[in-house]
UniProtKB/TrEMBL annotation:
The lineage of its organism: Bacteria, Bacillati, Actinomycetota, Actinomycetes, Micrococcales. This is Aldehyde dehydrogenase family protein. Signal peptide: none annotated. The keyword Signal does not apply. The active site is at residue 244. Residues 13-466 form the Aldehyde dehydrogenase domain.
Length: 471
């Protein structure tokens, strides 16, 4: 079991070129992160390539056993990992935050180990016999973001290892210590070279990872523009890709709801991780007949959810992870205010205070084409749009280029299914938003990316299908 101090000492840089990792709640320096080079990346790729044949040769049962051992190690060091994550990412320990995220790492690792993927018999009759096998691809290059740095890294690492690949992961610069720590804990049991981490700028190290001919698969979670760059950079090598990109999720509230009953679920759908979640509820369309009541009840919930430094056990909302994201949210809310939209709650940050705290903000009576609605704010500011015509609001929900998630809120299940079937999104939730399950495939439509993670489909996505056919 690691302590926070021993874990930090194991991952901070003590020599070479470094950058400071800063607590976004206090502006205090946590430690130094190594700024590695393209040469360091190439060495890590070579190491992974050399280790891959032996890892694949272990067979499925042994790899599954290793993943369970890695999950045990994460579980044993959970509190130290959560503290480091809270300090570096900013999210509080409690609520659906740091401890929750580390627990998710354990759950997703165990699920990746336990999900069955037998040989599929495709044809077995007088015409012949054919079966489908799933083979390792080779080396997987993983690029993880700063919003859920540990858990999304596990979404990339665990299925890749299960299927016999080795991994080179490049975390986001601002949460690199958290991912280094997670990898260090897992590597206490994994064979040498199977899981490797390289920290460095995306424009150099990340770009080189996507261009490497030795990488058979890239898994990326992040913005659509960076995803487009990865597609171009990897094209010459015909690298397999799973891209979970930007989202601007719409929720549609139908007129039969009980506003007080749905308010808390609406809140967490929008404001989990202080709104810094790809599949968070980012624009809410509410029918005119219940609009004022939904706004009122949601504001009541939001006003009573404490925000502050993550190590304070009372807080469940934290700062924005970096100043650039703070500036984005601030710009969009100020533009909404200037346009005449009504700020129901929040909207007045202390720009000179320590940390990147932006208050929980609800904006009502806003034009459906306002920038706060059509741009992904990725922070704690929710625009609520009034509607009267269902066909028109479905058109509004679908007209953006994003299609990660969506939700429908109603007491009429048949109506919910009808509306859900008309929404263009990888996932549509009914009377909730953003909940994920390790056995339920997840991914985007349109410019929110392609490929699926989790469950059987997630395992297949990090494998090379091979048909064996004959009589």
């Amino acid at each position: 079991m690691e302590t926070y101090e021993s874990l930090l000492a194991a991952v901070v840089a003590t020599e070479g070129e470094t950058r400071d990792s800063v607590n976004p709640a206090t502006d205090e320096v946590i430690g130094k992160v190594q700024k590695q080079s393209i040469e360091d990346l190439e060495a890590a790729i070579d190491k992974a390539e050399a280790a891959q044949p032996a890892w694949a040769a272990l067979g499925d049962d042994e790899r599954r056993a290793y993943l369970h051992q890695a999950a045990d190690k994460i579980e044993a060091s959970a509190e130290a990992l959560a503290e480091l994550l809270s300090r570096e990412q900013g999210k509080p320990l409690n609520g659906p935050n740091a401890r929750f995220e580390v627990g998710g790492c354990v759950a997703w690792t165990r699920t990746a180990a336990e999900t069955p993927l037998p040989v599929e018999v495709l044809v077995d009759d007088e015409s012949g016999y054919a079966e489908m096998h799933y083979r390792p691809i080779g080396v997987v290059g993983a690029i993880s973001p700063w919003n859920w740095p540990m858990m999304i890294s596990i979404w990339q690492i665990a299925p890749s290892l299960r299927m016999g690949n080795t991994v080179v992961i490049k975390p986001a610069d601002t949460t690199a210590l958290s991912v280094r720590a997670l990898v260090a804990v897992m590597n206490q049991v994994l064979p040498e070279g199977v899981l490797n981490v390289v920290t460095g700028p995306g424009r150099t190290v990340g770009d080189a990872l996507t261009r490497s001919p030795k990488i058979g698969k890239i898994m990326f979670t992040g913005s659509t523009p960076v995803g487009q760059q990865i597609i171009e950079a990897s094209a010459n090598n015909v690298t397999r890709l799973t891209l979970e990109l930007g989202g601007n999720d719409a929720g549609i509230v139908l007129p039969d709801v009980d506003p007080a009953a749905i308010a808390e679920d609406l809140f967490w759908g929008a404001f989990i991780n202080t709104g810094q979640t790809c599949a968070a509820l980012k624009r809410l369309y509410v029918h005119d007949s219940v609009y004022d009541q939904v706004v009122e009840e949601l504001a009541k919930v939001a006003a009573n959810v404490p925000m502050g430094v993550g190590l304070d056990e009372n807080n469940v909302l934290g700062p924005l992870q970096n100043r650039g994201q703070f500036d984005t949210v601030d710009r969009l809310v100020e533009a909404a205010k200037a346009s005449g939209a009504r700020v129901v709650l929040g909207g007045e940050p202390d720009r000179d205070a320590p940390g990147n705290f932006y208050p929980t903000t609800i904006v009502a009576d806003i034009d459906p084409h306002n920038d706060l609605v059509v741009e992904e704010q990725f922070g704690p500011a929710l625009p609520i749009i009034r509607y009267t015509d269902l066909d028109e609001v479905i058109k509004l929900a679908n007209e953006l280029e994003f299609g990660l998630g969506s939700s429908v809120w109603t007491q009429d299940r048949a109506k919910a299914l009808e509306v859900a079937g008309r929404l263009q999104a990888g996932t549509t939730w009914i009377n909730s938003h953003g909940g994920l399950h390790p056995m339920v495939p997840f991914g985007g439509a349109k410019k929110s990316g392609y490929g699926r993670e989790f469950g059987v489909e997630g395992l297949k996505a990090v494998a090379e299908p091979q048909v064996i056919s004959g009589r």
